[in-house]
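Annex B. Sample input.
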Amino acid sequence: MAVDRERVAALVRELLEAIGEDPDRPGLRQTPERVASAYAEFFAGVGEDATEPLAHTISVAQGPAPETLPSGAVMVRDIRFRSICEHHLLPFRGHAHIAYLPGEQVVGLGALPKVVDVIASRPQVQERLGEQVADAIASSLDARGVLVVLAATHECVTMRGGQQSDSSTVTIAARGELTDPIARAELIALLPARGLNRGGGHAG
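Annex B, continued. Sample output.
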């Protein structure tokens, strides 16, 4: 379902009036339309199927390189993401690190960032975002295990309340064989320290 830009713009105008501003002054005259365009981008994943990027799989045994059967995990690190916290409608952003233990089917590596993009482009909380990414991969591939690690900074933490500007949040979602702490410890050890300690420091 597409974002109703006209309705968003009208509500932003009303919001500006509610905080005591004049939406007709020069600096704010185009703000409702600008916010509506931004929201159309931020929430483009609402109603979208996050498993669609995973629909095209490649047979390992019968594909173009059957001699390269993976013996361990496939990992994509440092996937930049941004989302909007559903509690305060403030951004959070950071890096996603995804690993899976392939079965007979694999996907192109570019499919995994697309899954993150779709699910992040909704009102979210970080914990659910990671779980939904893990579920999408686990339900679409014959993976023996899935691991999703998210590291992010939240503007509802850094800009309001205690204003903890150096705070970051790390969440882990695991499925299958990677629910075993020992099995996933090896993969977590491969993650970059900066991607875990300062989740949003380099996100776009």
